[in-house]
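Database export, one record per block. Field names are fixed; values are copied verbatim from the stored entry.
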Amino acid sequence: MKLSYFDHIPDAVANISPRAIKQVFPNPTLINVPGKKAEPVFISTVLHGNETTSFRVLQHLQRSVATKRPERSLMVFVGNVDATERGVRRLEGQPDFNRLWASGPGKFYMIAQNVLREARRQRVFASIDIHNNTGANPIYGCINVLRAADLQLAAMFAPIGVFYLMPSTTQSIAFSRLCPSITLECGRSEDPNGIAAATRLVDAVIQMEGFDVRPPSEEALSLYQTVGRVVVDPDCTFSFGQPGADLILQEDLEGYNFRQLDAETNWARTEGASPPLRVFDEHDDDVTANFFRFHDGVISLSRAIVPSMITTDQTVIRQDCLCYFMEAI
Protein backbone atom coordinates (compact mmCIF):
# COMPACT_ATOMS: atom_id res chain seq x y z
CA MET A 1 0.00 0.00 0.00
CA LYS A 2 1.28 3.46 -0.94
CA LEU A 3 -0.03 7.03 -1.03
CA SER A 4 -1.20 8.16 -4.46
CA TYR A 5 -1.61 11.79 -5.57
CA PHE A 6 -4.32 13.27 -7.81
CA ASP A 7 -4.69 16.86 -9.05
CA HIS A 8 -8.47 16.53 -9.52
CA ILE A 9 -11.44 14.50 -8.30
CA PRO A 10 -12.04 11.92 -11.05
CA ASP A 11 -15.40 12.09 -12.84
CA ALA A 12 -15.93 8.38 -12.18
CA VAL A 13 -16.37 9.07 -8.45
CA ALA A 14 -19.84 10.50 -9.09
CA ASN A 15 -21.36 7.26 -10.35
CA ILE A 16 -19.98 4.50 -8.15
CA SER A 17 -20.95 3.05 -4.78
CA PRO A 18 -18.55 3.21 -1.82
CA ARG A 19 -17.85 -0.52 -2.24
CA ALA A 20 -16.50 0.22 -5.76
CA ILE A 21 -14.02 2.81 -4.48
CA LYS A 22 -10.91 0.91 -5.61
CA GLN A 23 -12.01 1.21 -9.22
CA VAL A 24 -10.99 4.86 -8.89
CA PHE A 25 -8.63 4.89 -5.90
CA PRO A 26 -6.57 1.67 -5.70
CA ASN A 27 -4.53 3.18 -2.85
CA PRO A 28 -5.00 5.81 -0.17
CA THR A 29 -4.98 9.05 -2.14
CA LEU A 30 -4.31 12.74 -1.52
CA ILE A 31 -6.24 14.97 -3.94
CA ASN A 32 -5.23 18.61 -4.46
CA VAL A 33 -7.74 20.83 -6.28
CA PRO A 34 -6.53 24.43 -6.86
CA GLY A 35 -8.96 27.16 -5.82
CA LYS A 36 -9.18 30.94 -5.89
CA LYS A 37 -7.72 31.12 -2.37
CA ALA A 38 -4.52 29.14 -2.01
CA GLU A 39 -4.76 27.92 1.60
CA PRO A 40 -6.79 24.72 1.29
CA VAL A 41 -9.64 23.18 3.22
CA PHE A 42 -8.54 19.69 4.21
CA ILE A 43 -11.28 17.05 4.08
CA SER A 44 -10.64 13.56 5.41
CA THR A 45 -12.77 10.74 3.99
CA VAL A 46 -13.28 7.00 4.62
CA LEU A 47 -10.81 6.63 7.47
CA HIS A 48 -13.29 3.93 8.53
CA GLY A 49 -14.53 1.81 5.66
CA ASN A 50 -18.06 1.29 6.97
CA GLU A 51 -18.73 5.03 7.42
CA THR A 52 -19.95 6.28 4.07
CA THR A 53 -21.14 9.87 4.61
CA SER A 54 -17.66 11.14 3.76
CA PHE A 55 -17.82 9.31 0.42
CA ARG A 56 -21.13 11.05 -0.36
CA VAL A 57 -19.49 14.40 0.43
CA LEU A 58 -16.63 13.46 -1.90
CA GLN A 59 -19.18 12.79 -4.65
CA HIS A 60 -20.77 16.18 -3.96
CA LEU A 61 -17.38 17.87 -4.23
CA GLN A 62 -16.69 16.14 -7.54
CA ARG A 63 -19.91 17.56 -8.98
CA SER A 64 -19.20 20.99 -7.49
CA VAL A 65 -15.70 21.44 -8.89
CA ALA A 66 -16.13 19.60 -12.19
CA THR A 67 -17.08 22.76 -14.06
CA LYS A 68 -15.89 25.64 -11.88
CA ARG A 69 -12.91 26.54 -9.75
CA PRO A 70 -13.72 26.40 -6.00
CA GLU A 71 -13.47 29.55 -3.91
CA ARG A 72 -10.75 27.89 -1.83
CA SER A 73 -8.32 25.12 -2.69
CA LEU A 74 -9.21 21.62 -1.58
CA MET A 75 -7.01 18.91 -0.12
CA VAL A 76 -8.96 15.65 0.15
CA PHE A 77 -7.56 12.52 1.75
CA VAL A 78 -9.19 9.25 0.68
CA GLY A 79 -8.16 6.87 3.45
CA ASN A 80 -8.84 3.17 3.99
CA VAL A 81 -9.95 2.11 0.51
CA ASP A 82 -9.40 -1.60 1.27
CA ALA A 83 -11.83 -1.54 4.20
CA THR A 84 -14.30 0.62 2.25
CA GLU A 85 -14.35 -1.96 -0.53
CA ARG A 86 -15.34 -4.59 2.09
CA GLY A 87 -17.75 -2.31 3.97
CA VAL A 88 -15.96 -2.76 7.32
CA ARG A 89 -14.32 -0.38 9.78
CA ARG A 90 -10.87 -1.86 9.12
CA LEU A 91 -9.49 -5.16 7.89
CA GLU A 92 -7.96 -7.69 10.26
CA GLY A 93 -4.28 -6.91 10.61
CA GLN A 94 -4.75 -3.23 9.72
CA PRO A 95 -4.41 -0.42 12.22
CA ASP A 96 -7.33 1.96 12.66
CA PHE A 97 -6.87 4.75 10.09
CA ASN A 98 -8.03 7.28 12.68
CA ARG A 99 -5.34 6.20 15.15
CA LEU A 100 -2.35 6.73 12.82
CA TRP A 101 -1.70 10.42 13.21
CA ALA A 102 1.10 10.33 15.76
CA SER A 103 4.49 8.75 15.22
CA GLY A 104 4.62 5.00 14.73
CA PRO A 105 6.27 2.26 12.68
CA GLY A 106 5.25 0.97 9.28
CA LYS A 107 3.74 2.04 5.98
CA PHE A 108 0.38 3.17 7.35
CA TYR A 109 1.97 5.66 9.73
CA MET A 110 4.23 6.86 6.91
CA ILE A 111 1.18 7.62 4.78
CA ALA A 112 -0.32 9.73 7.57
CA GLN A 113 2.95 11.60 8.10
CA ASN A 114 3.23 12.35 4.39
CA VAL A 115 -0.30 13.78 4.41
CA LEU A 116 0.51 15.90 7.45
CA ARG A 117 3.72 17.14 5.88
CA GLU A 118 1.89 18.25 2.74
CA ALA A 119 -0.86 19.95 4.74
CA ARG A 120 1.75 21.85 6.73
CA ARG A 121 3.54 22.89 3.54
CA GLN A 122 0.33 24.24 2.01
CA ARG A 123 -0.67 26.05 5.22
CA VAL A 124 -4.05 24.39 5.45
CA PHE A 125 -6.94 26.74 6.34
CA ALA A 126 -9.18 24.26 8.20
CA SER A 127 -9.55 20.51 8.64
CA ILE A 128 -12.82 18.55 8.44
CA ASP A 129 -12.81 14.83 9.24
CA ILE A 130 -16.12 13.13 8.43
CA HIS A 131 -17.39 10.10 10.36
CA ASN A 132 -20.49 8.10 11.23
CA ASN A 133 -21.69 6.29 14.36
CA THR A 134 -22.89 2.70 14.50
CA GLY A 135 -25.25 3.53 17.39
CA ALA A 136 -28.12 5.99 17.76
CA ASN A 137 -26.60 9.44 18.35
CA PRO A 138 -27.52 12.97 17.36
CA ILE A 139 -25.41 14.81 14.81
CA TYR A 140 -22.56 16.58 16.59
CA GLY A 141 -19.05 17.96 16.05
CA CYS A 142 -15.89 17.09 17.98
CA ILE A 143 -13.08 19.55 18.59
CA ASN A 144 -9.72 19.25 20.33
CA VAL A 145 -8.83 22.86 21.12
CA LEU A 146 -11.11 25.39 22.82
CA ARG A 147 -10.29 28.11 20.29
CA ALA A 148 -12.88 30.49 18.90
CA ALA A 149 -12.33 29.15 15.36
CA ASP A 150 -12.78 25.50 16.32
CA LEU A 151 -15.87 26.34 18.36
CA GLN A 152 -17.22 28.26 15.38
CA LEU A 153 -16.80 25.19 13.18
CA ALA A 154 -18.69 23.09 15.73
CA ALA A 155 -21.57 25.57 15.97
CA MET A 156 -21.78 25.83 12.18
CA PHE A 157 -22.26 22.06 11.99
CA ALA A 158 -24.64 21.28 14.86
CA PRO A 159 -25.90 22.68 18.18
CA ILE A 160 -24.03 19.92 20.10
CA GLY A 161 -20.24 19.80 20.39
CA VAL A 162 -17.77 17.52 22.16
CA PHE A 163 -14.28 18.49 23.30
CA TYR A 164 -11.94 15.50 23.54
CA LEU A 165 -8.24 14.77 23.98
CA MET A 166 -8.36 10.99 23.63
CA PRO A 167 -7.51 8.98 21.69
CA SER A 168 -4.56 11.31 21.14
CA THR A 169 -3.63 9.76 17.79
CA THR A 170 -6.64 10.90 15.76
CA GLN A 171 -6.51 12.92 12.55
CA SER A 172 -8.36 15.82 14.13
CA ILE A 173 -5.92 16.20 17.01
CA ALA A 174 -2.92 16.10 14.67
CA PHE A 175 -4.43 18.76 12.40
CA SER A 176 -5.54 20.94 15.32
CA ARG A 177 -1.86 21.82 15.67
CA LEU A 178 -1.92 23.24 12.14
CA CYS A 179 -5.34 24.88 11.83
CA PRO A 180 -8.92 24.93 13.16
CA SER A 181 -10.02 21.31 13.13
CA ILE A 182 -13.26 19.38 13.57
CA THR A 183 -14.55 15.81 13.42
CA LEU A 184 -18.10 15.55 12.09
CA GLU A 185 -20.19 12.79 13.65
CA CYS A 186 -23.00 12.44 11.11
CA GLY A 187 -25.25 9.80 12.64
CA ARG A 188 -25.47 6.41 10.97
CA SER A 189 -24.04 5.82 7.49
CA GLU A 190 -26.30 6.98 4.67
CA ASP A 191 -28.47 9.05 7.03
CA PRO A 192 -29.63 11.82 4.67
CA ASN A 193 -29.68 14.39 7.47
CA GLY A 194 -26.04 13.65 8.28
CA ILE A 195 -25.02 13.84 4.63
CA ALA A 196 -26.82 17.16 4.22
CA ALA A 197 -25.28 18.63 7.38
CA ALA A 198 -21.74 17.59 6.42
CA THR A 199 -22.18 18.89 2.88
CA ARG A 200 -23.47 22.25 4.12
CA LEU A 201 -20.51 22.69 6.45
CA VAL A 202 -17.93 21.77 3.80
CA ASP A 203 -19.51 24.18 1.31
CA ALA A 204 -19.64 26.96 3.92
CA VAL A 205 -15.99 26.56 4.94
CA ILE A 206 -14.86 26.62 1.30
CA GLN A 207 -16.54 30.03 1.00
CA MET A 208 -15.04 31.50 4.19
CA GLU A 209 -12.59 34.38 4.24
CA GLY A 210 -11.60 33.76 7.85
CA PHE A 211 -12.86 32.87 11.32
CA ASP A 212 -14.50 34.99 14.00
CA VAL A 213 -12.29 36.07 16.86
CA ARG A 214 -15.10 35.50 19.37
CA PRO A 215 -16.51 32.06 20.20
CA PRO A 216 -20.18 31.24 19.57
CA SER A 217 -22.72 31.79 22.33
CA GLU A 218 -23.83 29.07 24.73
CA GLU A 219 -27.21 29.19 22.99
CA ALA A 220 -25.56 28.31 19.68
CA LEU A 221 -23.47 25.42 21.02
CA SER A 222 -23.97 23.03 23.94
CA LEU A 223 -20.50 21.71 24.70
CA TYR A 224 -19.43 18.50 26.44
CA GLN A 225 -16.01 17.18 27.40
CA THR A 226 -15.00 13.53 27.11
CA VAL A 227 -13.73 12.23 30.47
CA GLY A 228 -13.57 8.47 29.91
CA ARG A 229 -13.43 5.74 27.28
CA VAL A 230 -15.30 2.54 28.17
CA VAL A 231 -13.92 -0.78 26.91
CA VAL A 232 -14.97 -4.41 27.35
CA ASP A 233 -12.44 -6.95 28.62
CA PRO A 234 -11.20 -8.71 25.46
CA ASP A 235 -11.29 -12.10 27.21
CA CYS A 236 -14.97 -11.98 28.17
CA THR A 237 -18.10 -12.71 26.17
CA PHE A 238 -20.87 -10.12 26.24
CA SER A 239 -24.43 -9.55 25.07
CA PHE A 240 -27.17 -6.95 25.25
CA GLY A 241 -29.80 -8.53 27.44
CA GLN A 242 -29.29 -12.15 26.35
CA PRO A 243 -28.33 -14.62 29.12
CA GLY A 244 -25.30 -16.88 28.94
CA ALA A 245 -22.57 -14.27 28.42
CA ASP A 246 -19.89 -13.24 30.91
CA LEU A 247 -21.16 -9.66 30.69
CA ILE A 248 -24.84 -8.90 30.10
CA LEU A 249 -25.24 -5.23 29.22
CA GLN A 250 -28.58 -3.45 29.51
CA GLU A 251 -30.66 -4.30 26.46
CA ASP A 252 -31.62 -0.65 25.89
CA LEU A 253 -28.14 0.74 26.61
CA GLU A 254 -27.94 2.48 23.24
CA GLY A 255 -30.86 4.69 24.30
CA TYR A 256 -28.61 6.27 26.95
CA ASN A 257 -26.59 8.24 24.36
CA PHE A 258 -26.42 11.96 25.14
CA ARG A 259 -28.71 11.54 28.17
CA GLN A 260 -27.79 12.79 31.63
CA LEU A 261 -27.70 9.60 33.71
CA ASP A 262 -27.90 9.60 37.49
CA ALA A 263 -25.62 7.72 39.83
CA GLU A 264 -26.91 4.18 40.52
CA THR A 265 -28.14 3.75 36.93
CA ASN A 266 -27.79 0.04 36.13
CA TRP A 267 -25.36 -0.67 33.33
CA ALA A 268 -24.80 -4.43 33.24
CA ARG A 269 -24.74 -7.74 35.12
CA THR A 270 -21.86 -10.16 35.37
CA GLU A 271 -21.12 -13.54 36.94
CA GLY A 272 -17.42 -12.77 37.21
CA ALA A 273 -15.52 -11.86 40.33
CA SER A 274 -14.62 -8.43 38.93
CA PRO A 275 -16.38 -6.19 36.40
CA PRO A 276 -15.25 -6.86 32.82
CA LEU A 277 -15.69 -3.17 31.96
CA ARG A 278 -12.87 -0.66 32.18
CA VAL A 279 -12.80 3.13 31.86
CA PHE A 280 -9.63 4.94 30.74
CA ASP A 281 -8.95 8.66 30.86
CA GLU A 282 -7.06 10.88 28.42
CA HIS A 283 -3.72 9.68 29.81
CA ASP A 284 -4.82 6.03 29.37
CA ASP A 285 -4.98 5.60 33.15
CA ASP A 286 -7.56 3.15 34.51
CA VAL A 287 -10.24 5.25 36.22
CA THR A 288 -12.96 2.57 36.36
CA ALA A 289 -13.57 3.10 40.07
CA ASN A 290 -14.48 6.74 39.39
CA PHE A 291 -17.41 5.74 37.20
CA PHE A 292 -18.66 2.21 37.99
CA ARG A 293 -19.76 0.44 41.16
CA PHE A 294 -19.71 -3.39 41.30
CA HIS A 295 -21.94 -5.13 43.86
CA ASP A 296 -23.51 -8.61 43.84
CA GLY A 297 -22.94 -9.01 40.13
CA VAL A 298 -24.55 -5.68 39.20
CA ILE A 299 -22.52 -2.95 37.52
CA SER A 300 -23.99 0.52 38.04
CA LEU A 301 -22.80 4.09 37.70
CA SER A 302 -21.10 5.55 40.74
CA ARG A 303 -21.68 9.13 39.55
CA ALA A 304 -23.86 11.13 37.16
CA ILE A 305 -22.54 11.05 33.59
CA VAL A 306 -23.52 11.60 29.94
CA PRO A 307 -22.54 8.73 27.60
CA SER A 308 -21.98 9.03 23.86
CA MET A 309 -21.34 6.68 20.95
CA ILE A 310 -22.74 3.61 22.72
CA THR A 311 -22.92 0.94 20.05
CA THR A 312 -24.30 -2.60 19.94
CA ASP A 313 -21.99 -3.55 17.05
CA GLN A 314 -19.77 -6.22 18.59
CA THR A 315 -17.03 -5.83 15.99
CA VAL A 316 -16.77 -2.10 16.61
CA ILE A 317 -16.78 -2.69 20.38
CA ARG A 318 -13.91 -5.17 20.02
CA GLN A 319 -11.93 -2.98 17.60
CA ASP A 320 -12.53 0.31 19.39
CA CYS A 321 -14.73 0.74 22.47
CA LEU A 322 -18.23 0.43 23.90
CA CYS A 323 -18.73 4.19 24.37
CA TYR A 324 -17.39 7.41 25.87
CA PHE A 325 -18.35 9.23 29.06
CA MET A 326 -18.80 13.00 29.00
CA GLU A 327 -19.54 15.96 31.25
CA ALA A 328 -21.14 19.25 30.24
CA ILE A 329 -18.77 22.20 29.99
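Remark 1: The mean pLDDT is 96.
Remark 2: The radius of gyration is 20 Å.
End of record.
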